[in-house]
Write a structure and sequence with these properties.
CATH topology of the largest domain: Rossmann fold
Number of helices: 14
Structural class: alpha/beta
Largest sheet: 7 strands, parallel
CATH architecture of the largest domain: 3-Layer(aba) Sandwich
Shape: globular
Number of strands: 15
Order of helices and strands: EHEEHEHEHHEHEEEEHEHEHEHEHEHHH
Helix content: 25-40%
CATH class of the largest domain: Alpha Beta
Strand content: 15-25%
């Protein structure tokens, strides 16, 4: 079987399935995307260069779609080269978010496309205007609606779609659900697993020493920003740290902006550190930036209370990994998180944006060891039942087989 993956940030969501397919010598696997340093065993790379400069002579709401069409042109040009060299895929698997797949069926008509539909943008009822502290800018609604131009153009291909959660599927209009099927994502349970020895050793992260006697509160996001509740956990720190002198806190995440708007001239981390200066013991708070994956897992395995906060948006991989590692989780009580965490059964859920409730739930888990242990074990059991990577790969294999007939 010849498989062509397409994703601007190779490998994106396809690391595990690409590795799985490439491990079969009967398969030929290519990955087409923007140039980066990622290399996968037995996977050939085809790269393109992309100019992110924005034109000033088009409507501000049209920039995303214009970029998408330019990316589609780049991918189509590379596809024509591959075709000229004799390559014809049996199936094309890729992410629709950046428009890369929009022209590819013109190169290989009749080849099935399995496209990832990540999120359908809405002006109400999801992430936009969810947080009253950061209201939408005036006249922003047209841009939000225009962000669905790529979604709609992808749906117009009349191909095959997938999305990993019920929440994400529910953001799409009902008429799209015949085309978009649920295909849950998993984690490697043998890698993301509890470590009974984790609390018996000193853990060093970002210059902080976490001793066996310390209580560790963890928080992980790609970047420290309001979309992932960074402002909420920061405002919860004064109470957590004042009531528990044995607590140390590690907040993992970079200083870029993945979602929402950046601050002018200042990172979100610097902003809230400055805003809360003197209100908590900063010596017991570590913000190491983005950390190696092995360190990420060590933190989850050592955590006494793991905080996962978010707007109504796509759930982070770290939530799945935290459950698999057996963390006692405090999460936001919204559909995004409720799909994974059930309050008082597999974790604790707190009202969105509620600083005091977040602090109280963390303190309760630190105080009530029996509850924390019960929730930790239940989170791991839930991961074993629903998040097994092998189950995900089998489902993906079955979907490919179904599309190839």
């Amino acid at each position: 079987m010849r498989v062509l993956f397409v994703h601007q940030n190779v490998p994106g969501q396809y690391l595990h399935i690409a590795q799985h397919l490439a491990a079969n010598p009967a398969n030929e696997v290519l990955f087409l995307g923007e140039m980066n340093q990622v290399e996968l065993p037995n996977v050939r790379r085809v790269s393109y260069m992309f100019d992110r400069a924005k034109r000033t002579d088009i409507h501000s709401a049209a920039h995303d779609y214009e970029h998408a069409l330019h990316r589609a042109d780049k991918v189509a040009a590379m596809a024509r080269n591959l075709k000229a060299l004799g390559f014809c895929p049996d199936i094309i698997i890729g992410h629709h978010g950046w428009g890369e797949l929009l022209h590819i069926s013109d190169i290989w008509p009749g080849v099935p496309i399995l496209g990832y539909f990540e999120f359908y943008y809405r002006t109400v009822g999801a992430d936009v205007n969810f947080d009253p502290e950061f209201p939408m800018q005036p006249n922003f609604e047209p841009r939000v609606r225009a962000m669905n131009a790529i979604n709609l153009a992808a749906l117009a291909l009349e191909q095959h779609g997938q999305t990993p959660t019920q929440f994400q599927l529910a953001t799409y209009p009902a008429w799209t659900h015949q085309q978009i099927k649920l295909l849950p994502e998993g984690v490697h349970l043998d890698i993301c697993r509890p470590d009974p020895q984790a609390r018996r050793h000193v853990l060093e992260v970002g210059g902080m020493h976490i001793a066996p006697s310390d209580k560790l509160v963890t928080y992980v996001a790609r970047n420290l920003e309001p979309y992932r509740g960074f402002h909420t956990i920061m405002r919860a720190l004064p109470r957590i740290l004042s009531e528990r002198p044995d607590v140390k806190v590690v907040l993992v995440g970079g200083d870029d902006v993945s979602y929402g708007a950046p601050l002018a001239g200042e990172t979100w981390r610097a902003h809230f550190v400055r805003l809360l200066a003197g209100q908590y013991d900063a010596s017991r708070v570590c913000m190491p930036g983005q950390v190696p994956y092995a360190t990420h897992l060590q933190l989850l395995q050592r955590s006494d209370a793991h905080v996962y906060l978010t707007y109504p948006f796509v759930a982070s991989w770290s939530l799945r990994e935290a459950m698999a590692c057996g963390c006692a989780i405090v999460g936001t009580d919204i559909d995004t998180v409720r799909e994974f965490v059930t309050d008082h059964r597999t974790g604790r859920l707190v009202p969105a944006l509620d600083t005091q409730a977040t602090a109280e739930a963390v303190l309760e888990l630190l105080e009530d060891k029996a509850q924390a242990k019960r929730l930790s074990h239940a989170a791991r059991r839930h991961a074993e039942q629903t998040l097994d990577m092998q189950r995900h790969i089998r489902a993906f294999d079955a979907r490919i087989a179904e599309l190839l007939g």
